[in-house]
């Protein structure tokens, strides 16, 4: 009997030791953390944008954790890879909503992914706040869908007005074949007509395309004053390089998705003179933007692009909501509905009744290999 008791006691003690080791292994239990989901294309052709999302979100979490967390609890970013695919994004959304410890979701990158997942998040009453989904359709995606980037409609309309101010009378469009690119195309064309700007050509490309020579040859024959690029910085750099080889000497103008050191590094002298709008611009009047850029550089040994900044702001808003309203899904929504004149790395922002951000961009240009304010 004594032998049996001793064995039983030893077993209990061993279980206690193993449990203690598990609790101190560096992996905290869900009850000890405040968990925010991050949905992004961590793999695939858009992985660089997903990594920017991840870095920005994790930096926001690291900063609050270094300051002691929230009520003694650490913030944890739970990353899921949607691969930039709408179907995979829905799988990610279902995984997040079924995990009651996930308080809100930062993501998705693509407008198509956000539109596909919005019914899942809204049905389950959990906030999704996108750093980058700018398609007009997201406006009506649901009460729990927010974004910290302005709509394509806003940006394209703003750029058409600017095009008129710059004296362009004939503009060619090169746009990504996606909800994002098509949204920019449609609104710019409409606004161009209102500004007496002729659309010389409108040519689409697929994400990841490398050869734009056929498109550019057609555009050269149309003799535009400028080319509007409705896409991302990797393709924009290639377009500029190939235009230079074809002696297509025109101005380029584009949206905030072009703001990245990668555009400067890949495009080199071919992107000199590019004009674009930007909401994240370190080194200007926005001290929050400059501080974020410095902190990002220190953490990752690289300069942040606009998507890292947007993800940082989106995550920071969720963290602020938890601090102010409490760690539950509905309280986060309540906070976001009341956001007005929030000062962040991408400017001063508010949300309207549709969860769309209200803010004002800066006009930028590339001069001597750097982004500077357009004057």
UniProtKB/TrEMBL annotation:
Similarity annotation: Belongs to the leucine-binding protein family.
Cross-referenced CDD domains: PBP1_ABC_HAAT-like (cd06349)
UniProt entry tagged with the keyword Transport: yes
Pfam families: Peripla_BP_6 (PF13458)
Ranges in a coiled coil: none
Protein name per its UniProtKB record: ABC transporter substrate-binding protein
Keywords: Amino-acid transport, Signal, Transport
Secretion signal, residue range per the UniProt entry: 1-20
Domain Leucine-binding protein: 33-354
Organism of derivation: Paenibacillus septentrionalis
Xref: InterPro entries: BCAA_transport, Leu-bd, Leu_Ile_Val-bd, Peripla_BP_I
Signal recorded as keyword: yes
Annotated PANTHER family: LEUCINE-SPECIFIC-BINDING PROTEIN, PERIPLASMIC BINDING PROTEIN OF ABC TRANSPORTER FOR NATURAL AMINO ACIDS
């Amino acid at each position: 009997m004594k032998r049996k008791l001793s064995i039983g006691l030893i077993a209990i003690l061993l279980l206690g030791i193993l449990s203690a080791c598990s609790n101190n292994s560096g992996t905290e239990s869900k009850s000890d953390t405040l968990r925010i989901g991050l949905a992004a294309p961590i793999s695939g052709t858009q992985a660089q944008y997903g990594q920017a999302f991840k870095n920005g979100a994790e930096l926001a979490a690291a900063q609050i954790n270094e300051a002691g967390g929230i009520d003694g609890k650490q913030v944890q970013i739970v990353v899921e890879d949607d691969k930039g695919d709408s179907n995979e994004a829905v799988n990610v959304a279902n995984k997040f909503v079924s995990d009651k410890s996930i308080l809100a979701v930062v993501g998705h990158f693509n407008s198509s992914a956000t539109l596909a997942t919005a019914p899942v998040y809204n049905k389950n009453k959990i906030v999704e706040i996108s750093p980058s989904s700018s398609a007009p359709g997201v406006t009506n995606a649901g009460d729990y869908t927010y974004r910290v980037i302005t709509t394509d409609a806003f940006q394209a309309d703003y750029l058409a007005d600017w095009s008129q101010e710059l004296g362009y009378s004939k503009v060619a469009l090169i746009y990504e074949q996606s909800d994002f690119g098509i949204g920019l195309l449609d609104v710019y064309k409409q606004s161009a007509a209102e500004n007496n700007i002729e659309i010389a050509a409108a040519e689409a490309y697929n994400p990841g395309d490398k050869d734009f020579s056929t498109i550019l040859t057609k555009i050269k024959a149309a003799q535009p004053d400028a080319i509007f690029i409705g896409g991302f910085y990797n393709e924009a750099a290639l377009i500029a390089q190939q235009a230079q080889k074809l002696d297509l000497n025109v101005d380029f103008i584009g949206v905030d998705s072009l703001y990245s050191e990668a555009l400067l590094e890949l495009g080199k002298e071919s992107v000199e003179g590019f004009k674009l709008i930007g909401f994240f611009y370190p080194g200007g009047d926005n001290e929050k933007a400059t501080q974020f850029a410095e902190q990002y550089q220190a953490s990752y040994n690289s300069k942040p692009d606009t998507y890292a900044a947007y993800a940082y702001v989106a995550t920071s808003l969720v963290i602020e909501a938890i601090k102010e309203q409490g760690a539950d899904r509905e309280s986060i929504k309540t906070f976001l509905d009341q956001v007005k004149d929030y000062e962040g790395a991408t400017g001063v922002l508010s949300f309207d009744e549709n969860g769309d951000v209200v803010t004002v961009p800066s006009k930028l240009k590339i001069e001597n290999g750097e982004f500077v304010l357009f004057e």
